[in-house]
Structures are given as C-alpha cells and as structure tokens.
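Q: What would this chain look like folded?
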Amino acid sequence: MELNLARVDYLQVGVTSQKTMRLLPTSRHKAVQKVVIGDQDGVVTCFGIKKEEPVVIFKTLPGEKIARLELGGALNTLQEKIFVASGSEVRGFTKRGKQFLSFDTNLTESIKAMYISGADLFLCASYIYNHYCDCKDQHYYLSGDKINDVLCLPVEKLSCITPVLACQDRVLRVLKGSDLLYEMEVPGPPSVLALNEGNGGDSGEEVLFGTSDGKVGLIQISAVSPDEKWKIENEKKRGGILCMDSFDIVGDGVKELLIGRDDGILEIYNFENANSPVLRHEYAFSESVTSVQGGCVGKEGYDEIITSTYSGWVSGLTTEPVYRECGSGDEVKLSHEIQNKILTLRNDLEHLQVKVLEEREKYQLNSQSSTAISTVPTFSINDKFTLNRDDASYSLVLEVQTAIDTVLLQCDVPIDLKDVDKNSAVVSVVDCESEPNGNFLLATYRCQANTTRLELKILSIEGRYGTLQAYVIPRVQPKTCQVQQYQIKPLSLHQRTHCIDPERPMNTLTLKGQFSFAEVHSWVVFCLPEVPEKTPVGESISFYFQNTFLDTQLECTYRKGEGYFKSDNISTISILKDVLSKEATKRKINLSISCDINETSVNHTLKLIHPKLEYQLMLAKKVELIDALRELQTHEGNMDFLIPEYRNIVEEAEQLLKEHEKQPASLERLYGMITDLFIDKFKFKGTNVKTKVPLLLEILGSYDQNTLLAFFDSAA
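A: My prediction, written as structure tokens:
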C-alpha cells in the first residue's frame, strides 16, 4: 500500500522545546482530537479544528519557559489531564483549561525532563532525578552526567515502578527506588526515550531510545539485565533524534515508528520483518521537529501525523486527499466552500500587508523622534556544537525562529571550515595570516531568503585551544546581533567511551600536589570534551576517551592531591602536561609532574596512522591523474587501451573527487600529527629536533612506512 501524505499547517505558537505537544485522547476510534502545546513564552494552547479552521479552546497567560508537556490521569483510564513543567514547578490543567494543580518541587535547578504514570510523577533536572507519588517525595538519585530524558515502564503490566534515565555519557540507567539497578551503554548520547508501541510492547519492558547523533534502538529492560533487540545506524548522516512515537498510519494493524530529527526530517519506519524496522516514508521540514504524535485532528476518519517545529508551527501530514490531479484540458471546479476560503485568505493577506506598512511608517517616525527609545528585538537561538565520530569534525548547528541574514565566525585558534551539502549560504573567508590581533579565522555566511537553520563543519587541531564565536544576525528591523561562544578544548578530538584496550603500550603522566578533587576535575573539564562540569560524587573518578581521528586512547584517573593520565599517544601526554602546568600556575598551585614514557608507543601510534595516511596519499594520487586520463579518453575515444587500474579511476572519477572534497585537509592534518609525534618523542628525552622536521616532511612526501619508522628510531 502506497503512503500518500499531504502537509497541512494548522497554527503557530511561540518557540517550542522538545516533547511539548500532545494530542488529547478520545473514547471513539478515529474521532477528531484536540492538540495541546506549550511554548517557551510559558503559554499552554489547546485547539481543535472546526470547518477546517483552528479554534482555540483555551490559552494560558505567559510565564516561565515550558520544558515538557505530558498527559496523565488515573491508570487504565483516558489520559486527558495536561501537565506542564516550567522552572521548578509542575502545573496541571483539565482538558477545558481549568488549573487543578500547582506543585512547586523546590528543586534548585529547572526541570529538564518529566514523565507521569497514574499518581507517580518522575522529574529530572540536569543531574538530579526525583520520584513523587501524590506530590510527596519518594525517591532521589544523583546521576554522574546530565539527564536528557526519563520514563517509567508501564506499572499496569509489570506491577512495579522501574524508571529509566537517558544520560549524556552514552548510558541508560535503570533504577529501583533510589538505587541504580544497572546501566547499559548505548551507541551515542541518548536524547529521547519512548515506550515501544506506546505501551512497552507485549512484555511492557521494551524501550526505544534515540541519540543526539541520529541513531535509534530498541532495548528490553528486564529485572536482571538489558537485551538489545535492534539498532538503526545513522548512515545518511542526518540530525539528532528529538522525538518518537508509535502509530498505525498505514492502517494495516501494525504500528509504525515515527521519528522527528533536529534537521527537520520526519521518518516513518514500518516492521516488514520482526528483526528491525525499514524506512517507509520521509518528509523534510525546514526546521527542527520538536514533537511528533499520530492521531486524527483535521477531519474525522482520516489519520495523520501531527508535528510541532522549533519556531512553533503545528503541522499535520494527513492521509486525507487534499490535492486532486487533473489533465491539461480539464476544467478545475472549486466548491463554494473553497472559493469562500480563498477569498477570506486574500482579505486577511491584504489586511496584514496594510498593517505592516502602517507599523513600518510608525517606526520610521518614532526613530526620528528625540524622546523615543529604541529597544533591541530579542530572538531565540537553538544551537548545538558536537564532535562527529565518523570524520573527527565538529558540527555547529544554529537555528533561529526568524530567517537568518548573516553569521560571522571568529576564532582565536587555527581551525578549518568544511563544506556541508545542506548548506546553501555564500561563504566569504578573510585571510588572517598577516593579522597581528590573534584572529585565526574570520568567515561570513550570507544566507539565502527564509533560511532559519544553518549547519557548519569545523576541523580543529589538538593542542591549539581557544574560543570560537558566532555572531548571528537575523532578518529583523532594527538590525540586531547575538553572540554565541564555543570552547575549542586542548584535546578537542577526544570522545568519551566506556572501556579501553589494556594491552596497548601506554605512556603515563602523574600529577601530585596540594589541589582539591574539584580543582583537578575543573582542569580535566577544561582539557577534554564531554566531561560533566559537576564534580563527581565520591573520592575518585576514572574517565576513558578515544581519539576520533587516530583511534588512540586516554585514561584519566584522579582524586584529591593526585592524578594519573595514561595514553598510547605521546602527543596527548605532552598536551596534557603543558596545559595542566599552565592551569596550576594560574592558580599558584605547586605541582609535581612525572612522565613514564613507553618507547614502543610511538611506533604503535605510527602504525595506527599508517592505513589512514596510505589511503589519503592514494586518493590524492588518483585525483591528480583524473584530468590527464579524461583527456586521453577524449583523444582516443575509448578506454580499452588503459590498464584496469586506470580504467577504474576514470569510472570512479566523480566519487573520488567527491571524497577528496569531503576531506580537504586530511593529509595536512596527518602530516601535522606525525610531526608533533616526532617533536614530542624527543622533547621528553630533552632533545630539540625541530631542525630535522624538513627532512621528516621530505620522507612523508615519498612515504614508506619502514623508512618513516627507521627515521623515528635513528633521528636522535
């Protein structure tokens, strides 16, 4: 059965957060449902559709930003009570808009995630989980990293309360009361949780998770241990998952999986076989999809998928045939109802145009007045700065509620910009090499009309750390700008992992001194990404990292007065030694630093680099040959006389050029890493070998692995 969905835009509210829109349930199948949505202005809006027009049923007064909206009610009844979390308060409304609950939790942090099951309320701030029953405190848990989402397995199926936390450190934590039952590692930082099929599946133990790097999976949470059922990788390199739902949009009796992403893609997966879902349909919105739910809103009997987007649009993808096809000679007959609707829309549009002109004239007059005060228009920016494991680049996403005019990037450390396919902005890069003012990058992105989301890719160099600033200018009058800052950390290409290979040859950096646990933790936060800012509970902590570019590893173990850093890459140890010494000197803390260097680690790192370097050199060589081979092909008329290797180059030319464009600075990055490794190896021996760097680059120019290893061994 072919899935034909037509888009219908219903209403626009203020900027929305993740999971803040729900459909109120009805007792009749395929009856028209009401939509309830909360926005960042603190307004809860409930509306329904009558005569194809949205009719607001109730609307609350503005207040604190709404972070979550959930439906609740007594177990085994219609879940039609509306609960919203804003700040540290939870409010409850009936479906008519009457407030029946105002519960101040007295949490020191704002609520980030909420789940409701009968009389049980589960709330999460950044690191704290709280369980309330009838608004009375029951259980509490302090997480080791930020909590992104929470849910509870269905009590009516399992007869026990089992909360599940999605934590930023790539872990799902399953609780029992105030204690950790067990934890399970997932392939990325989990951003959203949902019960499979809306009820946890047949067993009630099945939980769907979506990650901020775009992966989806299904896990069965049993009382003893978890069991991974299936996982979908993000092969198309799409955005992170913000929302999920299960709904039978096809009408075959099996619920499809609906997924909303932060790059505006809505995906529908169905279960053609029991092993894993298959992508059936997709639709691209121009901005983040913050909430998604299947139901019936526009017209009775027609199912649709309702979405809310970042800027507050509530839209539906409906199964109702909205468009009718006709041939070129056919006469299009419009019903009286549609003619009236077109006339009303035209009148509304004319009225708005007149109003805009009046307001512009009014503003011009006021701006010339000596007593008038100009106010800067405020606007929200939804931003994300994350490290991609696949290509060791940083992805910077900027999303604004209005159209973006220009984005200016400024950085005080050397970074490279990488092309993004989705990006249609015009880029101008200023040459900063001769600038004495510390600017290493100045680039302007001029966006095309109606662009509300801009995605950029950035390549950083480990050991060079500083601040990247993005000046965002939207298309609003008067002109205004907001500055967003992002830290480029000393070990910026390292990503958190949960285990490392103990068999690798490791170099050790040992720190000892009069420093507190909080101080040494703040140094680690300064050096490495994905470390929680909050000082961990307990006397000591261990973190494990993997370099996304070289696959080398790092282990950090520290407590009050001492710290141990182990890595199979000597350059990582060198960077840590320099940065930690500087940070301790700033705070006037006397440090005792010792390094235990394993000679075999250098050759081990070179062997890790070898396949990457060989691939890049081969790619560069093939790309160089493309033009000459194409000229030969044109001159001779065919390629039969060429050897198979050259024929393959001509056949795969487009793919090779595309691959080369994707990795413009990869060879330079690898040369830089090998050079740093060479200098660092001899730095720890007290020898300066910078004069031998040109000779090293010469060897790299005509690369041979054995020659390079021999040079590293004999250079002293």
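The two ends are 72 Å apart (CA to CA).
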